[in-house]
């Protein structure tokens, strides 16, 4: 009996030792494997049940299938959690994909960024941030918190959307590279002048790109706008703070971005180095674009098509077709240098006369560079000749280019003129930056003008007075040679740029 009890006691001791060892082993395993595994469910925005027609751009404009929207191409995930960035491999998990275990201790962890990349480090899927355009297309947008308990491994489901041709701002990110966490703000405020009212706050719209050569929709880093509502209690309507990614490990002078800034629809553009952003912020706190209210001010248009009728005689001799010389003109300021630029692109020439195209600036003392054929100071003002002979402004050249059906078609020679510095009293009006001048010669000799320095040239036809120069919107279409413009655009053609009849007489509709 004693031996039996002894054996039983020995058995109990061994069993207890085995139980204690196994508990210790379980505890060690649990501690080693506790943490989070993320399970991703991916979809396209266009497949989401919450997407409504017209809400967002769905997919690509070219109709191509998006092979990139295949979860099997995803190689790894980058998840930012509690201020730490985790790069985690992905594994097939049924119809979805699951990360390897992220080992963390017990506690609450906020997820602030989540993206899936392919093996070439291209972003494929992302979870949008709350308040972004695409946030409504997932069940749980960023940020959100997960709870990790002691000795427990959890799985957490996350919705991701295919990035396709969409931009980072649509997901709420400044840049696809989540390693760039810091940004610099370039805040912009703009005034413009109205003749009867005075200063008004301008509307602003900005687009940020890596550089001047990468400005497609897929290159867009950041975009934003301000509606200029000065009376609103929301100051963000007036001041637009442009966000520029910043890598603190590099000198600011080595980092720059190309910015397109539209002020009341007028383009200001240029490359902005981050060291200049720092200088602006230290000196003034924001970039102030201000149009002075001194002097006359005529709002022509937000666009710069200048179309000429080169006959100044009255009566039936004038065909009133406004295609004798047409030039697209864009005025813009390089926001980094402050230089004022004028870009000219001839569109059509329907004239037998020869003429030169010039523009005038008030006063003297300008420093002008670029493609100007000549710069002259005449009677206290400055004349800049862009095309000495409009006949030579096209390739191939000729009297009638892009104006007669079945005849010569050609490309205009683009020229850009830059004002590097101007007199201290120079006023640059955003929508009326210069006086245009067509010098007609080779038969009659006279000057046709539009603007404030000189009286605008006019002629009389059918008892009505019309300007020789016509300022139109950029999408305006010119009529064929010899067609009275009124038969297509109506009698108010100087302000109406939409055809009302006889659209077959537009040059673009030549048979």
Model description:
With 511 residues, the chain is mostly beta strands. The chain folds into three domains: 30-171, Domain of unknown function DUF4458 (Immunoglobulin-like, Sandwich); 182-290, no CATH class; 305-509, no CATH class. It is 10% helix and 39% strand. It is built from four helices and 32 strands. A hairpin with a 2-residue loop joins strand 22 and strand 23. The longest helix has 32 residues, at 2-33. This is DUF4842 domain-containing protein.
Summarize the topology.
Elements: H1 2-33, E1 35-43, E2 76-81, E3 84-93, E4 96-99, E5 107-117, E6 123-126, E7 144-148, E8 153-162, H2 168-171, E9 182-194, E10 198-201, E11 204-209, E12 222-226, E13 240-246, E14 256-263, E15 266-273, H3 274-283, E16 287-290, E17 305-308, E18 325-333, E19 340-350, E20 354-361, E21 367-370, E22 374-378, E23 381-387, E24 394-395, E25 400-401, E26 411-412, E27 415-421, E28 435-441, E29 446-450, E30 458-461, E31 464-467, E32 469-472, H4 486-489
Which features would summarize this protein structure in a list?
single chain; 511 residues; mainly beta; Immunoglobulin-like; seven-stranded mixed barrel; seven-stranded antiparallel beta sheet; 10% helix; disordered N terminus; DUF4842 domain-containing protein
């Amino acid at each position: 009996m004693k031996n039996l009890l002894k054996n039983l006691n020995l058995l109990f001791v061994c069993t207890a030792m085995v139980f204690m060892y196994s508990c210790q082993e379980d505890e060690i395993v649990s501690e080693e494997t506790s943490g989070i595994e993320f399970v991703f469910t991916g979809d396209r925005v266009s497949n989401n049940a919450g997407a409504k027609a017209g809400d967002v751009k769905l997919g690509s404009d070219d109709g191509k299938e998006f092979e990139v929207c295949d979860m099997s191409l995803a190689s790894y995930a980058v998840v930012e959690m509690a201020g730490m960035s985790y790069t985690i491999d992905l594994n097939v998990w049924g119809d979805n994909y699951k990360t390897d275990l992220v080992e963390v201790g017990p506690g609450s962890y906020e997820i602030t960024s989540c993206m899936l990349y392919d093996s070439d480090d291209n972003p494929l899927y992302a979870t949008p941030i709350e308040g972004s355009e695409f946030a409504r297309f997932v069940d749980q947008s960023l940020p959100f918190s997960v709870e990790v308990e002691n000795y427990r491994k959890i799985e957490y489901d996350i919705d991701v959307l295919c990035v396709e041709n969409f931009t980072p701002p649509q997901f709420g990110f400044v840049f696809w590279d989540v390693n760039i966490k810091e940004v610099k703000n370039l805040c912009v405020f703009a005034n413009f002048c109205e003749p009867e009212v005075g200063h008004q706050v301008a509307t602003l719209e900005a687009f940020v790109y890596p550089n001047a050569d990468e400005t497609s929709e897929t290159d867009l880093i950041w975009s934003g706008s301000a509606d200029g509502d000065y009376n609103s209690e929301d100051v963000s309507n007036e001041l637009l703070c442009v966000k520029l990614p910043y890598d603190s490990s590099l000198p600011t002078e080595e980092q720059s971005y190309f910015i397109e800034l539209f002020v009341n629809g007028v383009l200001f553009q240029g490359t902005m180095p981050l060291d200049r952003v720092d200088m602006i912020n230290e000196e003034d706190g924001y970039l102030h674009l201000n149009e002075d209210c001194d002097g006359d001010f005529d709002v022509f248009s937000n666009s710069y098509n200048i179309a000429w009728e080169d006959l100044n005689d009255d009566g039936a001799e004038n065909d009133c077709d406004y295609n004798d010389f047409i030039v697209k003109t864009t005025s813009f300021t390089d926001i980094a240098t402050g230089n004022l630029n004028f870009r000219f692109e001839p569109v059509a020439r329907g004239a037998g006369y020869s003429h030169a195209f010039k523009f005038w600036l008030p006063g003297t003392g300008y420093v002008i560079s670029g493609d100007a054929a000549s710069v002259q100071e005449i009677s206290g003002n400055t004349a800049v000749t862009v095309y000495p002979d409009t006949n030579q402004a096209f390739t191939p050249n000729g009297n009638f280019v892009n104006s007669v059906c079945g005849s010569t078609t050609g490309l205009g020679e683009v020229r850009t003129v830059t004002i590097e510095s101007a007199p201290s009293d120079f006023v640059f009006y955003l929508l009326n930056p210069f006086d245009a001048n067509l010098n007609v010669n080779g038969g009659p000799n006279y000057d046709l003008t539009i603007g404030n320095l000189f009286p605008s040239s006019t002629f009389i036809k059918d008892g009505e007075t019309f300007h020789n120069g016509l300022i139109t919107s950029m999408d305006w279409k010119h009529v064929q040679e010899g067609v009275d413009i009124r038969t297509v655009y109506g009698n108010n053609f100087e302000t109406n740029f939409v055809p009302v009849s006889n659209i077959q007489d537009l040059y673009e509709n030549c048979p």
